[in-house]
Fold Diguanylate cyclase.
Amino acid sequence: MAEYNPKNFLILAVDDNSINRIMLEKILTKAGYQIKVLGDSEEFLNLINNIKPDLMLLDLMMPKIDGLELCRLIKAKKHYQEIPIIFLTASDAKENVIEAFRSGAVDYVTKPFNNEELLARIQTHIELKFTRDQLKKALVDLEKLATTDELTQISNRRHFLNLANREFNRAKRQNIFFSMIILDIDYFKNINDSYGHPVGDIAIKLVAQKCQQSIRGEDLCARWGGEEFIVVVYDALIDEAKHVANRIREKIAEIALPIDDEQFKITVSVGIAQYQDTDQNIDQIVSRADRALYRAKNHGRNRIVL
Ligand code: GH3
Ligand code: MG
Ligand code: MG
Ligand code: MG
């Protein structure tokens, strides 16, 4: 974390005692924080969707909704779950301390408190939250990197196999069906050889886009290898998958690579296979789709074979 700067952080305090509020506002403002103080829980709950503090200080004993109840309400809100909550209370009863942590608080400070200590605790919890947020973001980035094909930005083979295996197990348990489509660009080597690898890359990217655009949101399209793509069509028998494959082919037919004043057209050959309850694993379905693709190539390309 770069140098810790309190002015970047908003602290929200809820306390029914106005003297406490004034004192907190003074201490935290002096320390450089943005601070907002509220007199009761309801006032806060009315604001909850319009304000996102970096840390909250809660009084425990308050009329109507007390601090513990408020803490539980806050933690039940998804976009509030990560905000650290510190109790600031005159009560040092052990059952309150325990209940505060159980309700989701990260710290418990008794009044009267030492200013420096409170500020140190606030800084610690904000820094911890910041580090946690960064780790989570890094995990999301990493997951995207691990599941995405770099050239086309659609799913990669590994991600495809993970999800397809999951679907395979679901199909086995629940007696449902799904289908698989494999497609391969026709005479792709000619594109590379005649116009160069970068043009080949553009063609691959465009085909990936068209493929992705042709499927339902819940279906999955991935780059299987070089200029081959694979699609899982969930809950679909082979005829339905054929409709999807036709849509993909029509979309790919729209591609016109502008090369030397000409518009280069791309075609694909397509193989389709359906899950059968005798299948032992995903590879068997992929093999059937692959063999169908092979027949499509042998019968003149630019066609779909089941
Ligand atoms: P067919 O109609 O039988 O499929 O003929 P084809 O020329 O498409 O056959 P093949 O599958 O043998 O050719 C695939 C070529 O794709 C070979 C490889 O050099 C090229 N290739 C694989 N990955 C990439 C890539 O990421 N970018 C580019 N530009 N070319 C690639
Ligand atoms: Mg109170
Ligand atoms: Mg190929
Ligand atoms: Mg090919």
